[in-house]
Amino acid sequence: MMSSENRSQFSVSCSSVSEKARAKINLALHVTGQRPDGYHLLDMLVTFADHGDRLDFMRSPADAFTLSGRFGEVLAGDGGTNLVLKARDLLRGAIGPLAFPVSIHLEKNLPVASGIGGGSADAAATLRGLMRLWGTTLSAETLAALALKLGADVPMCLESRPLIARGIGEELEPVPELPAFAMVLANPLKGVSTPEVFRRLATKNNPALSLTPSRPQAADWLAAIAATRNDLEPPARELVPEIAAMAAMLQARGALLTRMSGSGATCFGIFASMTSAEDAAAALHDARSDWYFQATETVSGGA
C-alpha cells in the first residue's frame, strides 16, 4: 500500500513537466530579398545545441513566473513582454477551460538577444511543455500559426532539429543527414541591434542557399557549410568589433570553422571533438572571463 508521503510525491511528479530550450545555431544565413511589408526573405541552415535554457511547469493555484540562471536578472524587468508569458497566454486562448493556472520557472542560461534564439526557444518550449501539462494537442497547422505569431524563429525552435528555413522563417524542411558537431559558443555580452544590422546590409538580394555535400560525412558537411555565408556578419562586425576578435580567438584554439549566428553577436566554432571544444572553451574563459564561452554538441538530423 502506498504511504501518504509517496502518494503526495507521485501527484507532484505527475503535475509537473520540464522542457529544454535548445540554443538555435544559424550555420548559414543568406538574405535573398525583402517583402513589401519590410520583412527580409532568408535562407537558413539551422541546427540546435544541447546547451540551452530550461523551463519547469507545474499546476498552481494561480499563474506565477520565476527566473534563475546566469542571465535571469537581465529578464527580471521584462515581465510584461517576456515571450514565455506571451506563449502561455496565446496557447491558453486556443485551448480554453482545460488550461488551468500554472507556475512557470525559467532557468536562463543563454545570453539574451544574442543571435541564438534564446527567447524564441523559450517560447517554443513553453508551447511544448504546457501542451503536455494541460494534456492537450493542437493540429500541426494551428500550432505552427500560434508559433509564428510569437516570432519568425519560434516555428523552427518548436522543431528543435536540423532544418532549412526559408521565407521569413516559416517554410521548414528537415535535414536528416546533418551530423552532430562539437562546438564552442562565444559571446562578448554586448548587445547588437538586429534592425541596425539589417539597415547596414549593403545588398538584400543575395544568392540563395545551395547545399550539396558530396557525402554525408562530417568533413563533407563542413566543406559545404564553409561555402555558405552569414550575410549579416559583415554589418554586425562593423557595429561590434568584438565579433572579429572572438572569431580569431576560436580559430587560434583550433576551430575548423567559425561564423556568427543569426544577427549576432554570438559566434560559434566547430571543433574536431568535444574534448577539444571543452579545452578551447576553458582556455578562452581564462583569457576573457568577462565574456561568455560554452562548449556544447549539436543534435544530429537523424536523432
Automatic annotation (TrEMBL):
Per the record, what are the reactions this protein catalyses?
Answer: 4-CDP-2-C-methyl-D-erythritol + ATP = 4-CDP-2-C-methyl-D-erythritol 2-phosphate + ADP + H(+)
Keywords (A to Z) from UniProt: ATP-binding, Isoprene biosynthesis, Kinase, Nucleotide-binding, Transferase
Q: Which Pfam families match?
A: GHMP_kinases_C, GHMP_kinases_N
Copy the pathway line from the protein's UniProt record: Isoprenoid biosynthesis; isopentenyl diphosphate biosynthesis via DXP pathway; isopentenyl diphosphate from 1-deoxy-D-xylulose 5-phosphate: step 3/6
Boundaries of each GHMP kinase C-terminal domain copy? 221-285
Stated family: Belongs to the GHMP kinase family. IspE subfamily.
Name of the featured protein: 4-diphosphocytidyl-2-C-methyl-D-erythritol kinase
Instruction: Please report the organism this UniProt entry assigns to the protein.
Output: Rhizobium brockwellii
